[in-house]
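Subject: design request, 224 residues
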């Protein structure tokens, strides 16, 4: 990871109640478990002077700004997921936007698509990203792809501070992410670092096997 932390930003993606709390119809089963690690990642970022970027959805009540496949969730008589001003659009308890942080509203999977994130990061002199949040095969994956395309280096995914609908989907998403991006990363960035605790891959043996299969991947424990 970059030694110059002032040139690094932490992206916290979609850590909102509708995607995490049990009472939500669109909550991700694996999301609540990562909340403590996301909180810790934010704390570490602030201690190191890393810019914290809160990437959220705040959808229009009728869903006119969301993807077509999501629009059935939004009706005049029903509050859809992450509707602006709703409880579900709030950050999960324990995560708080503070002075000096940056909040970005997105309407698609990628934090870069149709937003001004790249301009903001460029203006702040940021060239390295750390990614946390939900969910791995959608918003995390697409944001990472776009970051690589925009020449951020390195792009780091903290595995135990990202999640998907289930642990299996998450782990599969991480493996596919590396496999799909590896050529681009090797050529454009040199290395794609995946930070995680061994428990995510069940055992040290699995971690060793993973490292042997993907020798360019750095296996480093936890967010602390």
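Subject: RE: design request

Done. Sequence follows.
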């Amino acid at each position: 990871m970059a030694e110059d932390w002032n040139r690094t930003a932490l992206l916290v993606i979609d850590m909102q109640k509708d995607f995490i709390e049990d009472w939500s119809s669109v909550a991700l089963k694996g999301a609540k478990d990562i909340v403590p690690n996301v909180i810790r990642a934010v704390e570490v970022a602030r201690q190191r002077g890393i810019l914290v970027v809160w990437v959220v959805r705040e959808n229009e009540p009728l869903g006119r700004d969301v993807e077509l496949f999501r629009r059935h969730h939004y009706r005049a008589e029903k509050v859809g997921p992450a509707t602006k001003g709703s409880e579900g659009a709030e950050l999960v308890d324990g995560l708080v936007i503070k002075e000096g942080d940056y909040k970005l509203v997105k309407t698609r999977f990628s934090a870069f698509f149709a937003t001004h994130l790249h301009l903001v990061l460029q203006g702040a002199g940021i060239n390295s990203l750390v990614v946390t949040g939900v969910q791995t095969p959608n918003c995390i994956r697409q944001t990472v792809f776009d970051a690589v395309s925009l020449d951020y280096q390195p792009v780091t995914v903290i595995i135990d501070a990202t999640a998907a609908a289930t642990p299996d989907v998450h782990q599969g998403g991480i493996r596919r992410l590396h496999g799909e991006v590896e050529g681009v990363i090797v050529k454009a960035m040199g290395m794609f670092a995946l930070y995680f605790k061994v428990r995510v891959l069940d055992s040290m043996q699995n971690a060793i096997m993973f490292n042997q299969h993907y020798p360019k991947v750095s296996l480093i424990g936890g967010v602390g």
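The longest strand covers residues 155-163.
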